[in-house]
Amino acid sequence: MHKQILAIILMMLCVNTVSADLYLELAAEAGGQKLIDSNTVDSITAGGGIKFAIGFQNPVNEKTKTSIRFSVGYLSDSIFADNGQADFNTVTLDAMVIKKAGAHSFGFGATMHMLPEYSDYVIGYRPEKIEYDDALGFVFQYGYQFVPGLNLGLRYTDITYQVSGFRQDAGSLGIFVSSGF
Fold first, then answer.
1. Residues 77-125: pLDDT tens digits?
2. Nearest alpha-carbon partner for 140 in 117, 110, 114, 107
């Protein structure tokens, strides 16, 4: 896994960042296998939650309106109830190729979820903490630029978490608002 992280960092260093733009993102992700639910409609799923990300987007070909985007994010979800709480969080590293066509943009790439962790404390039960292995997955997205510099879009993430040989689907479908291309 460390080789994959090093490869992504080296790719980021090879990109000419002189013409790069700041990239900011806020997303709501849903999907993956259910980790816990409450007596109400609240639940936590692997790979779901609210995501904040920052990075850069660099045009690589002005003629074809293609850019490369790298971002680091934090994905988190929590439930608070009368008898306890549960939390899920992970650090995300995304590397994507984005193609713009008018106000539309299409992207694909890779995502790495580092240090995914689930924990809960429910009164009357033993506290649980699951530290998943780092995971590598794929990302596909569509965005629409409704005002210059601001996009609204949909993203599909295909990723699986693993711990001690146990695999758990963490794929998600999300909606995002972002700055940039």
1. 998 888 889 999 999 999 999 999 999 999 999 999 999 999 999 899 8
2. 107
CB proximity list for 96: less than 8 A, separation 6 or greater: 68, 69, 70, 107, 108, 109, 110, 139, 141
CA-to-CA separations, 15 to 10, 62, 110, 155, in angstroms, rounded: 9, 15, 16, 24
Domain boundary assignment for the chain: 2-179
**Fold classified for 2-179:** Porin (2.40.160)
4-46 pLDDT tens trace:
555 555 555 555 556 778 999 999 999 888 888 776 678 888 8
**Rounded distance, CA 109 to CA 139, Å?**
5
Classify the C-alpha dihedral 138-78-144-60 as positive or negative.
negative
Which residues have CB under 8 Å from 131's CB, separation 6+? 115, 116, 117, 163
Check: CB of residue 83 under 8 Å from CB of residue 122.
Answer: yes
Q: What is the length of the chain?
A: 181
